[in-house]
Amino acid sequence: MSLLVAAALLPLILVHLHALWLMVSRRDGIAIACSLAAWLVLALLFKALRPSMPLAAVWLPGLYPYALLGISGVFWSISRAQGDTAREKWNWLLSPARPDGPHALFLSVLIGHAGFAVLALWARPALLAYLYAPSATALCFLCYFLILGGYQSRRHGRRLGGLFVSLSILVLPPAAIVFFSALSSWWQGR
């Protein structure tokens, strides 16, 4: 049983360590400050939802790294957006300078959240997976980052295309839900 628990916690730890490594290695103080602010927001939210559990505000944000990175991404994109008009800011957001930096991480998390939000409108399992399967959802968001990084490295820093963003929003979350439900049924049938 402890091996199963360790296997379930491994994706959460990997996502936290990967995000921390990206922010610290690039020396992006704004990204680190946005992550700390997001932890505070989630801690206050969980404290309000679970007032009877005094330490829930400390450890519950750690179980949802994708929510933490999503809030961090919103804060980071607001604080770092460059340009005078909304169109210039949108173009800047879709043009990560490096495919492996905090910009690409936050962009992939924002695209992933948009995909899960769109999917949750039509399919209840997507919302349930987001809330009750943090390891599977964290793996999905890590895959988003790897796919975005691979795509951006081939484009040599050019702006992301609308087709790629649309396909990422509409195709990847259902594919992840189907994959993890098949994996779950295989695991239960073993």
Provide a compact summary of the structure.
The chain has about 190 residues and is mainly alpha-helical. About 80% of the residues lie in helices and about 0% in strands.
Can you describe this structure?
The relative contact order is 0.12. The model has no long low-confidence stretch (mean pLDDT 77). The chain contains ten helices and no strands. Helix content is 82%, strand content 0%. By secondary structure, the protein is an all-alpha fold. It has one domain.
* Number of discrete helical segments: 10
Sheet bearing the most strands, described?
A: none
Shape: globular
Secondary structure tally: strands: 0
Using only CA atoms, what is the Rg? 17 Å
Strand content: under 5%
Task: Give the topology, please.
Blueprint: H1 2-25, H2 29-49, H3 56-63, H4 65-80, H5 86-93, H6 102-122, H7 124-132, H8 134-155, H9 162-170, H10 172-189
Helix pairs in contact: 1-8, 2-3, 2-4, 4-6, 6-7, 6-8, 6-9, 8-10
